[in-house]
Amino acid sequence: MNKLWDRLRQVRLPVVHSLSLYVDLGTSNTRLAIQDRGVVLREPTYLGYNTRAKDFVFFGKEAKVIVGKTPEFIKIVRPINNGIIADFDAQVALLKKFLEIAVYPYLHQYRLLKPTLSALAATPLSATEIEKKAVTEALLKSGCSSVKIIEKPVATAAGCGFDVFSHEPRLIADLGGGLVETSIISGGGIVSYKAQKNAGEHMNKLISNYAYLKNGIILGENTCEEIKINLLNFTGEEKTITVRGKSLENGLPKSIKMKTADLIEALLPNLNQIIDSIKELIEIAPPEIVDEVYKHGVTLAGNIAAVNKIDKHLAGELKIPVKIAENYGDATINGLMALDKDKKRLYNIVAT
């Protein structure tokens, strides 16, 4: 009996601990990452809602590809609007599904006592306290045990490879799907900040309006995004593609050819607004920061940074160096993981 007791005392029970989950709730794409595992999910922020069954039936990529192709009782829902939760219930449903397919499989190795999920998420600086609270509540309802919120520009700067706690100011332009956020980061905080709602989603609408007014054709959302991806560049190369839509005159199918020059004509005013926003940000910054900004230049993040030679175009207009972050698409989620490695310093920048 004593030998059995000695053996039982030597058995080490697994300790219940918390597993860090990193969340980037983007207007166009949602990204999830796990501590020591890296990014485990990149999915479009779309859902398909069945109004007859009163349930969400399509999620992520599956929902995005059927935009404009569904029967009346299937409604495509976009729960994030300009970086802010617009449909709380839909966002909770989407997070639950994404956790189920991308996070919970990693918890199977803990057979007896599964760790709790401690979430670290980023929200735009322009988000109100209520909007930040909505993010917290959505993550808690999705299965997380605790949630911390930090300002997205700080996370993005960290994901670009900068030490956000240093006193060397860095100007970051995050060209995302819902918001264009330009900010100057220094000393663990945001010195200057501007946000505009003229990012990737808005560009798709501009392309649709351009084709409607110039060619009398109605194009779908996914078609406009495909045109932007395939045609937009600042290399001087003229590309041409054939696109199909619905004729404005008779409602029948219609094909047109669009060129790179057409796309630049449609989007140039919008790009000029982004350039003006960066200029204004520099203008309102303290004088001591301007020299550092001109020395280090502007760093681009977000998926619009993928446009070929957009850095050269912006540099020519701004007259200062412009470079693209190495992992521009994953800058925010990578920044969350990087900041979480130093818990003591992270505590100083947690927003809630």
Structural class: alpha+beta
Strand order of the largest sheet: 3-2-1-9-10
CATH superfamily of the largest domain: ATPase, nucleotide binding domain
- Measured on Cα atoms, how large is the radius of gyration? 23 Å
Task: Report the oligomer.
Answer: single chain
Instruction: Please summarize the sheet with the most strands.
Output: 5 strands, mixed
Helix count from the secondary structure assignment:
12
CATH topology of the largest domain: Nucleotidyltransferase, domain 5
Secondary-structure element pattern, one letter each: HEEEEEHEEEHEHEHEEEHEHEEHHEHEHH
**Low confidence ranges:** 8-16
Average pLDDT level = 90
CATH architecture level-2 label of the largest domain: 2-Layer Sandwich
Count up the domains: 2
CATH class of the largest domain: Alpha Beta
**How many E strands?**
18
The first-to-last residue Cα distance is 53 Å
Helix content: 25-40%
C-alpha geometry: flat
Strand fraction band? 25-35%
Could you describe the 3D structure shown?
The protein is α+β, with helices and mostly antiparallel strands and 352 residues long. It folds into two domains: 119 residues, Nucleotidyltransferase, domain 5 (2-Layer Sandwich), CATH 3.30.420; 161 residues, ATPase, nucleotide binding domain (Nucleotidyltransferase, domain 5, 2-Layer Sandwich). Helix content is 39%, strand content 28%. The protein contains twelve helices and 18 strands. It has a five-stranded mixed sheet, with helices on both faces. The protein has a five-stranded mixed sheet with strand order 13-12-11-17-18, with helices on both faces. A hairpin with a 3-residue loop joins β1 and β2. α6 crosses α7. The radius of gyration is 23 Å and the shape is flat. It starts with a helix and ends with a helix.
